[in-house]
Structures are given as structure tokens and as C-alpha cells.
Amino acid sequence: MTSPALTPSAGTPLAVADPGALIQSVDWLAIAPPLIAALAALAVLVADLFLPEARKKALGWLTVTGLALALIPLLPLLDGDPRSTFCLRNVTAATDNAGCSYVADHFALAFQLIALGGALIAALLSLHTVDEEKLPGGEYWFLLLSSASGAALLPAARDLATLVIALEVASLPAFALVALRRDGRGAESALKFFLSSVAATAVMLLGISFVYAASGSIHLTAVAEGLATAPGQLRPLAEAGAVLTLVGFAFKVAAVPFHFWVPDTYTGAPLPVAGYLSVVGKAAGLSGLALVTTLAFRPYGHTWGLVLAVLAALTMTAGNVGALRQRAGTRLSAVRLLAWSSVGQAGYLLVPLAAAGYAGSAEPLGATVAYALIYGLVNLGAFGVVAVVARGGATRLDDFRGLFARRRWSALALAFFLLCLAGLPPGVVGLFGKVVVFQAAVDAGLGWLAVVMAVNVVIALYYYLVWAALLFAPAESAGSAEPVPAVGRLPGPLAATLSLTAAAAVVLSVAPQLVLQVVGGTLF
Hints:
The chain is mainly α. It contains 20 helices and 2 strands. It has a two-stranded antiparallel ribbon with strand order 1-2.
């Protein structure tokens, strides 16, 4: 039985009316995916202090194990109803998730699968890279796990404060990961990445402050209600805040004109880190952009839908035109081509978000989730094959000439990944993803955007097919360029990564409906 509140007076303590009401129960299963990744990061940090140098290779396998364990709680969560925690008083998961800061619904779980699965593949790619490039193992694995935990937290965040914190937890370790490369390019790339990201974050925080001032809340659904009923004198402030907030997330997605950091950062980072940024970093920014637009800025749906449609058209065009410049016979690297390709792919990922604004519904977001899952799988596989060639000393496009004669299975895997990215058979899963995105644009009445996408898909065919053709070209036709020899037997983790990604891509090409089963259900 609680005592009544006392009137404050000198020497009289202020009693709390109901101390029990301040204590919340935490749904540990709901928060398990990011929590396990964070605990694994702490375990790696502590183990690094006590393990002798000769046994620090075990830290890599500890990281792989931690990420695999973080994926396990997704299985029971996918089969149940959305779960929420960290809610305001009088708000329960059974009645309303509007006042909750963490919600594990189908949207969050699908992006957590992409984030943690992509981090797991990047960790497998990193096992040999850390040893061969003599990177500081303890720091590398701790930073990778920390960034992955932030990327897994972000899609489940349902208030602006948690979104910003999760985004920075995902981003700050990534700066350091890029800088760990020891040949001098890492520090320069990390500095460019850091400065541009900090500027984008500052702009986003200013926008969020404007949105909070206009709506009176930080919870996304409450923000939407506040913006819809905001008095006329606050409308300009709210609209400016929405625009500035979108700028920060557009940078993370690498949308034009906030894409300029991508080519230099990817080429200067260790190869697994470049692959991680192209998939997990992009997925984190995309999930945050989807949340703020579809939930918080729902009253401005038609406006931000048009803005995202224009950004999508510009981004896919800029990315594909930039990739066309990566010609065979030049000194430009294959990683740089994949960097520009990732910018173009970001444009495709933005199309369903724009369609959601026009449709006034979250239904088109399923296309974004499906395409992100497909893109993440095949793009990390392509980075894996580039890592194979990089062991021979270089990653120029001409270094892939005649790869079939030196590394038959690696060449076949890369050719298949490139066909998936291009959307050509037998890479049916890539074609399936593009069709789903194309249909979302058409159904929302964005026919002009669908035409722009179709033109860009044709443009992208050129550089993907040129690279694929190089794999089977005679080595002597390279002119003065000497083919890079095969370097012994592939390390086990690298071979396992290529086998895993290639097998998964083949299975999804045979049964692409499995992707829809993963992302199925009500997203919000």
C-alpha cells in the first residue's frame, strides 16, 4: 500500500506516489540480437587484455561466434507477434506500441538479419585479412562488433533519441575500422569519412531539435500526430526540421549529393570493412530513413515521397555513370567499381521508400527489405572474390583477366554474383529483386521513376558484363599487364564465405519466393 504524497516542507522529504510505477520490465528476448553483439564486443575487449599474442587469433572466432549467437534469437521472434519494451507508463505491447522506444516487428527483424548476417560474413572475410595485413586484432574485432550492435539496434528504435544513438554507435567504430589499414591510405580515407559524417550528423541533430520543438515529442508516432496538428506558425520550423533530418540519413545511405565519400573510403579501407560498409552501413542508414519518413513524417508523405523519388533517380544515375568510368586496362580498382555500383544500388533501394510516400502506406517497404537482403548477400560475395585476388597483390580490373584459368570456382562465383547484381539469368534472385522494386514504383504511380530505373539497369549491364567477360578472357590478351598468379590454397574461412554466399544466392535464384517469406508480414 502506497502512502499519500506529502506536502513539501522544511525537513520533510518528498514522497514518491508510486515507486513501482517507475520500474519497467525488460523484454530480454526482444533486445537479445543487439545485446548479444554488444556483450560479445565487451568479451573481446576484455579477452584482448589477457590473451598472449600467440593466442589472439581466437578473438576472431569469438567474434564470429558472438554474431552467430546474436542471429539465433531472430528465429523465435519471427514466428510471433511484434514485441516492445522501454515503453512509457500505461503503454503495453498488447495495446499500443506508440510510446515504446524499442519494437521488434517484422521490419526491425528483417533489417537485424541483414545487419548481423552481413557483419558475420564480413567477420569471416576478416579472419585472414587481420593476420595477413597485421591489423590490431583486439581493436578490429571490438570495433566490428560494436558497429554491428548499433546497426542491429537502429531498425528497432522508435524514438528520435534512440535513432541518433544507434546511428552513431554504428558509425563511430566504422571510422576507426577504416583507419586501421597500415599503408597510409586508411588514415586519409577515415578522415574524409569522419569529417563528412560529422557534418551530416550535426545537420541531422539540428533538424531533430526543430522537429521536437514543433511536435512536442520524440516518439515517432507521436511526432506524426504532433506535426499533423502543429499550429500554423510552427509549420515552417517543422518542415525545415524534416528536411534537415532526412539529410543525415541520406548521407548514411550514400544518396546523391551525399555520396562523395564512398569511392575514397571503400578503396582506402581494408577489403572486409569496405564490404561491411557497403551492406551493413547502408542497411542501417536505410532503416533509419524508412522509420523517420514512414512513421514520423507521415503527414508530409507526398512531399518527402517526391524528394526521395528525385534522390533515387539522381543516385542510381550518378552511381552507374561513375561505375562506367572504371575501365579495364586502367589503374582504377575493382573496389572502386563496387563502390560506385553500391551508390547506384542505393538509388534502387530508395525507390520503394518514395513509393511509400506516394501510396501513404508502409506496404512498399517490403520491396526495399527484399532488395536489401538480396543485394547484401551477393555484394558481400563479390567482395569475397576480390579478397581472393587481393591476396595475389593487386585489385585492378585487369588483375581479374583470365581468373577462370587460375581460380576456376572463384571466377564462376564472381560471374554469378555480377549477373545477380545486373539482374540477368541465371542470377534470377537479382532479377527478382529489381522486378519487385520496379513494381512498387509502378503501383505507386511513379511511372517516370520506373523508366529511369529501367534505363539505369541497362547502363549497369555494360560494366557488370565487361567485368564478367574479363574473368574468362585469355590471360595473354592483357597486353603489358601481367596476370596475378594464384596464391596457394585459399584460407578456410575465406573459402567458407565464398561457398556460403554462392550457395545462398543459387538457392534464392531457384526459389526466390523465400525472400518474400523472410520479409513477409506486417512491417509496422
